[in-house]
Amino acid sequence: MPTKIIERYKRILTGEQKRFSPYEFEDVQYRKQKVQLVLRYAIEQVKMWTPEQARNELNMRDVKELKLHLIREYVEPPIEAKSEDVYYLVEYAYPYLPRSSEKDKVLWVYQEVLSGIRRHFPPLYFQSIKGEERAKICFDYMWQELLQIRDLRELPRIFTKTERAHHILRKHKLKILVDTLYFSPFDMITDMYPELAEPSLWNPY
Questions:
Q1: For the chain, does the N or the C end have fewer beta carbons within 10 angstroms?
Q2: Which CB contacts under 8 angstroms, 24+ apart, belong to 95-98?
Q3: Where are the beta strands (DSSP E) in 106-155?
Q4: What number of other Cβ atoms are within 10 A of residue 135's Cβ?
Q5: All structural domains of the chain with their residue ranges
Q6: pTM given for the model
Q7: What is the spatial distance between Cα 27 and Cα 146, in angstroms, rounded to a whole number?
Q8: pLDDT for 83-102, tens place per residue?
Q9: 3-state secondary structure of 181
Q10: Torsion angle (degrees, nearest 10) of CA 170, 172, 173, 176
C-alpha cells in the first residue's frame, strides 16, 4: 500500500535505512501518490511548515537533509526551473496551490537573464508553439518596457535595418530569437504582429 512508504521514509530519516528499494516507485499507478505522501510528511511533520511556507523557504540544503533527493528524480522540473530550484517539489505535493501565470513565469526567466542571474534561457525554451508564445511575451516586454516604444507601428522603422535590429536584440538578450526561431528581424516582427506585414510600413525605410 502507498501509505506504508511513510514508515520506510521514517527509517531513512533516522538512518536505519539508506534509501528506498529500487522497486518502490516501479508501479506507475501509485508513484505520484507515494512521492506526494513523502513530500507532505517532510513538509508538514518534519519541517512543520504550511505548503505556502514550504514553497517560499524550501531549498537544496533542506532537500538533502530531508533525503528528498531520493525522490526528486520522479518529479519533472518545469522548463524555467534552475538546477538549484526546488519550489516545484512543493507544487507537485500540493497541486491546488495557486500557480504563476505563463506570462509571469516567462517574464521571471527573462528578467533573470537580463540581470545576469541566468547566463542564458533554458534549453529549447523558444521551441514549439509554446516557445513562440514565450518569444512574443519577451519581445513585447522589450519594446514596451525596455525601449519604451508606445506605438506598435514604430517597430518597422526601428527594426528595418538588420544590423541595428541585431544590435538592439543582442543588447536586450533576445538575439536568440532570430538565431534559432526566425529567419530575420522582419520575419520575427511580421510573424508576431501580422498587421505589420503591410509592405508600405517597411518601404519608406
A1: N
A2: 97/51, 97/52, 97/55
A3: none
A4: 24
A5: 2-93, 102-202
A6: 0.86
A7: 50
A8: 999 999 999 999 999 999 99
A9: coil
A10: -60
